[in-house]
Design goal:
By secondary structure, this protein is α+β, with helices and mostly antiparallel strands. The protein contains 18 helices and 31 strands. The strands form 9 sheets. A 5-stranded antiparallel β-sheet has the order 3-2-1-4-5, covered by helices on one side. A 5-stranded antiparallel β-sheet has the order 8-7-6-9-10, with helices on one face. A 5-stranded mixed β-sheet has the order 11-18-17-14-13, with helices on one face. 39% of the residues are buried.
Amino acid sequence: MNEKNNLLAEFEGVVSGHRDGHGFVVRDDGQPDIYLPSNEMRAVLHKDRVKARIVRLDRRGRPEGRVTEIIERSSAPIIGRLLQESGVWLVAPEDKRYGQDVLIPKGATGSAKPGQVVVVELTEPPALYGQPVGRVKEVLGEIDDPGMEIEIAVRKYGVPHEFSDSALAEARALPDTVRAADLRQRVDLRDVALVTIDGEDARDFDDAVYCEPAKVGRGKGWRLLVAIADVSHYVKTGSPIDIDAYDRATSVYFPRRVIPMLPEKLSNGLCSLNPDVDRLCMVCDMLVDAKGEVHAYQFYPAVMHSHARFTYTEVAAILQNTRGPEAQNRKALVPHLLNLHDVYRALLSARNVRGAVDFETVETQIVCDESGRIEKIVPRTRNDAHKLIEEAMLAANVCSADFIAQGKHAGLFRVHEGPTPEKLETLRNYLKAMGVPQSIGDVPHPSDFQKVAAATKDRPEAQQIHTMLLRSMSQAIYTPENQGHFGLAFEAYTHFTSPIRRYPDLLVHRVIKAILSRQRYQLPALPTPGEAHAKLSKRLASRVRPPVPGEPVKKPSAELQAWQAAGLHCSANERRADEASRDVEAWLKCKYMREHLGEEFSGVVSSVTSFGLFVTLDAMFVEGLVHITELGGEYFRFDEARQELRGERTGIRYALGSRVQVQVSRVDLDGRRIDFRLVSGNDDLVLRAIRDKVGTPAQESDTRFRERSKGARQVENGKAAKAAKPTGKTSRKASRGAERSASKTRKGRC
């Protein structure tokens, strides 16, 4: 009966197209997406809001839907290349989730020329028997123009990239330097040796630090100052700059370009803690004991004068050798850096006691030339200077969360929930299958994860196990309801340290100032969330902790509702920025790998799905797909518990962490996809499979076993050649939904 009701019931959602012509309805209620066959996609486009109902279940039990009503057409522009075919003008969308070309009438092409990248505004939606019609709204240029991938991404994801005239006018009216009137009721820290420590390519400096030994109780400790740019002094609530900043919610970082949250006069000038100039700041002044616990803290507005602009590389060199050339150039400041290093080690010990999750992962940096082409992709190495700043910022963020909670004022917390029951069960099964003795309880603590990581760090599959631990985590969000930060093992946590580039931090500064002045900060009337992230906002809203059964449901106050809306908006725009950045990086990597078509590389399996293997190349840190149909004449079964594909005849296994040799076989620039195929050089995997299958004495050498197994391998290869070419247990057609789902879940951050 329930199943029948589900088939009859209608639901609302947003259409998500697929490059192969079919699509899905992403339901507002958070239930699984509904498949739309290609004939149902003829009258709708990607991002349209629709009503739909389930009409049948396919042979695998997955729901298939039918669109019953188009509620709202997407107003998002379509970006693509203008083409002329047989006298007909059309635009082929760059985003292949738009499954139809857009017809352009002769008088609607504007100044665009064939082959150029343009922005299209629809004038007629698609119909069952008619293509969509539009007009050229903007000409972006040639596809190979430097930075074109960024121009496409900001429009594709609806990233605001131009400040309003009123915001620019307000920025121009601001002073160039700190004025005497700005110093009233501020602590003067200009004689304190505060310094900034950032990357070589940083242009805006949010934070400065200083440390000196201090008596804490009866023991030794440190006084740690974290000074943060006082953006709230210049950006007033409801002002034109504030409205633009809220709309963006975050700065967006691309290779060689940043789209800032604030106008450049503020982000790189008046607010940035540049060296040798006076700057306004908000200070978190802490006393840290020998165990790394914050014994006491206070917040206050101040004026500072940065004594130096350090880079991470420079500080790491000084800490490693206090008599080296770097230290000689900064003699007066070396003692302060050593104090910072001492307090860092104390904070690190407290982190270990808390059991905070701390996995070492490889982050990469794309290095481009002047034309925007990738020169190389290099790993980012985290040294003690990175970790020193990170621990200082964590301490200040925890103090700001505690200050807001103690002040009983609404604000935005940075909440990171533990793994969902489904992810936890998957992780447990995986650890059990891998023979990991440590387990994770029903109510997991971050220390459980850290213990598993520590116990397996010397195993050959360590990277594989740590990857699974990371993937079981949820994404962090902004919310006024404090639910703690699971990964960092904090009971309360917020973002205070980056108001130049994150709007939640700016709100936290305003709340702290309101508490200090014994007032209450009131959020202004906020704009309606844009369509680009409305869907994600609904998904994030579904993560709000449900009420406890039996307890009366309290309607949130108007103030709390306003803070909830702000949290959802900032969380959604953070995801939007991440997606736009990943899209540009994927485009650059695809363009880079087109120069290496046919070349062979060694790599490691970084993800296993029912439709194939994702392999990350050792030398280039580029990821590509080896589709299951490229694994040879073999039936493969996907083992979710072990996260591996296993051949039924040979027993060959491809799991997370498996080393393979691949060839770059195809690069799809439009689809942001790189395809690999396995090549010779994977004999170790084959030999291991045969060894498991036929058995071998423990004392037999690998060389002798290779000779003995040669015949067995030839037999297996002969069987494969005679067999009809299989597509694996998951065929290409059946894997499309799984492929789409995997591409969604593999993206994101905590």
